[in-house]
Every structure is written in C-alpha cells, then in structure tokens.
Design goal:
Elements lengths: L12 H6 E3 L5 E3 L1 H4 L20 H16 L7 H18 L1 H10 L5 H19 L4 H13 L5 H8 L7 H20 L5 H8 L21 H16 L10 H10 L7 H11 L7 E4 L4 E6 L8 E4 L2 E7 L7 E4 L7 H8 L7
Antiparallel strand pairs: 1-2, 3-4, 3-7, 4-5, 5-6
C-alpha cells in the first residue's frame, strides 16, 4: 500500500468547527462534531424476513449494520462488529456471487444509505477478489466500502429522495464526508490506518480532480479506486426516490465513458467483465417477446442464464438460437412482495 501523503483539513467554517487535525496528522471530531451524531430511528425498516437465502443473510447484515449507523457513538466494539460483518460479506460473495449481485439490483431500499453501504461492500469485495488483492487489502476494501458514508448518513438519505441539485451547504458536506466518516470511525474505535486511508480517499479521481485532497493518480491506492468505482456503480444501479435505477448496460456505459478520467480503466474493464451487460437481477426481453429475469452470469457479457417468472424451474441459455436476448427491459420498481418472490429464484443457485 502507498504511504499516506500529507493531508490538510479543508479551510471551511464547517470543517474548522467540526473537525481538527492532531500533531500526528490524524483527523478527529471536535465536541461540536460529535454532537452531529445523536441517535436517530429508522425511517422505514425493510422487513424481509421471508426472503430466501442468501438474501436473508444479507438482510440480517443490513439490520446489524443499521444498528451501528443509527447510533454510531454508542456502539460497543464497533470495529470488531464491523470486521465480523465484513467477513460475512466476503463469505457470501464467495459462496453466492450471482445472488449477491442480484440483491444490488432487486432489493427495495427505504433506507438508501444503509442499503448502498451493503451493496457497495458486496460489489467492492467482488472487484477486489477479481483484482487479486491480498487478504488484508481485500478486507480493507470491504470495510471501507461499508463505512465510507457513515459520517453523513442522514444527508445521504435526504439526497436519495431529492430531485433538485444539492444546495451549497449540502455540497460542502458532500466534499467533506470522506474526512467526517474517517473521524467518526476513529471515535468508534477504528484505528487501522489502511481503513482510514481508503475511506478518506474514496472520492479521489484518476484525473486529479477528486475530493477532498485533489490527489494525483500515483497517490491513490488500488483499494480507494475500487471503493470509488463500487460506490458510483451502485449509485447508478440503485433506485432513488425520484427515479428508477439505470439499466446495467447504460450504467456501465456511463462508467466506461469516464475511464482514465474518474477511474482506472483497468478496474472499469474488470467491472464490465464481472457484471456483464445483463447482470443477475436484471430484466431482459427475449426475442420471442417474453420478459426474463437474469439469474446467473454466462460465458460472455452478453449471454447470461435467464428464467421466465412463470417457469422459474427452467433455466434458459441465451447463447442458444431458441432463447436469444433482444435487449434489456426497463427495470421496474420492486415492492416487498415482488422482492420476496424474486429472491426464490436464487435459492437453489446459492
């Protein structure tokens, strides 16, 4: 991992009032900063206890993560609990990668930031595995993706339902949130420098125009690049209060257009290969006009395995002349009942 270059606290009134930098260059919350993190209740919890595996395990992880997000300063052994959850994400991704990808696309998200944290952690873990990160760096990627926005949970939830552009004060918080999240994690007992480094730099960009430090390519570690890419990809693949999620092919095309600008082209290419143009959980129109659900990645990016909702026991191979894909179908908004039914498609594939 690259050595941590010198950091400077952004010179804004909010930063000066809520953050400080000690003699060792470590960012910490001031007393006023700590006051930002009072306990808050769930807006509307997603009760999906009847979902099938492995979605049920992901739902349990989301519930446990929510307990930390809603009252971060009151958690006992938060670092240990987060590490345990990271290990569970790793195990689920290794055991059921297609179902984990599908969960990103089909899970309703009444608590956007919480669901985004879990989704990004899953996708970053998958990318880290395919990038052949060593075990320590892979754990860093998983944990940083899970906690990168913990410092601005309520703001992120608000923005998820806000169709208008962020206000000036919201933009200031957005640009500061990597430092806020790192400082809050330190208050929670997280001391791992790799974890902090990755959270602090997960919005730095390949072209040097990221934030909050405007780092150059060579100053940004692979872990931060992977977390940034997973963060932006999940934001495009998840619905928000004012729009449906983007079809995967459109989302990936937008990311690919920004290769060597925002992102390392190597990692964008890896993401495209891993998800494919029709990832699990996506909806496709077959040449015969049927609506299919992708359940498993295929031999190529354009040839996944598909089922028809009324015949889920029959898996269709889209490489055959009988079942070619005409194109992606517009992803619908999925309610809880539909979600629970869809999760059963992966129960026997786990």
């Amino acid at each position: 991992m690259l050595p941590m270059p010198p950091r400077v606290l952004p010179d804004t009134l909010f930063a000066r009032n809520h953050l400080e930098m000690d003699d060792e260059g470590v960012f910490r919350l001031t007393a006023r900063g700590r006051s930002l993190y009072q306990p808050h209740p769930a807006h509307m919890a997603l009760e999906d206890g009847t979902a099938s595996e492995p979605m049920r395990s992901l739902a349990l992880l989301r519930k446990r993560l929510g307990e930390i997000f809603r009252d971060p300063l009151a958690c006992n052994d938060a670092a240990g609990r987060l590490r345990e959850m990271g290990q569970q994400v790793d195990a689920l991704v290794r055991r059921s990668p297609d179902a984990c990808i599908a969960a990103i696309l089909i899970t309703p998200c009444p608590e956007y930031t919480l669901q985004h944290a879990l989704n990004a952690s899953v996708l970053a873990t998958l990318l880290g595995m395919q990038a052949q990160l060593d075990a320590d760096e892979l754990e860093t990627v998983t944990l940083a993706a899970m906690t990168m926005n913990i410092g601005t949970v309520r703001l992120q939830d608000l923005l998820a339902g806000q169709a208008s552009p962020p206000s000036t004060s919201q933009r200031q918080l957005i640009r500061l949130h990597p430092i806020l999240s790192s400082a809050l994690l330190r208050e929670m007992g997280v001391t791992d420098p790799r974890w902090h480094e990755t959270v602090q730099t997960h919005h730095e960009e390949w072209n040097g125009r990221g934030y909050p430090f405007l780092l150059n390519q060579e100053e940004i570690g692979d872990a931060a690049h992977i977390v940034h890419l997973a963060d932006i990809a999940c934001a495009k693949l998840m619905p928000r209060g004012y729009r449906s999620r983007l079809p995967a092919r459109q989302a990936l095309a937008q990311l690919y257009q920004n290769r060597d600008e925002q992102f390392d082209v190597r990692l964008v290419s890896l993401l495209v290969r891993e998800l494919g143009f029709y990832p699990p959980g996506g909806f496709v129109e077959l040449a015969g006009g049927e609506l299919g659900v992708v359940v498993k990645r295929g031999a190529s990016a354009q040839s996944p395995l598909v089922v028809l909702p009324d015949a889920p026991q029959h898996i269709l191979d889209t490489t055959t002349p009988e079942h070619p894909i005409k194109g992606a179908a517009m992803p619908p908004r999925i309610n809880l009942q539909q979600y629970e039914a869809l999760t059963r498609l992966w129960e026997n594939l786990a």
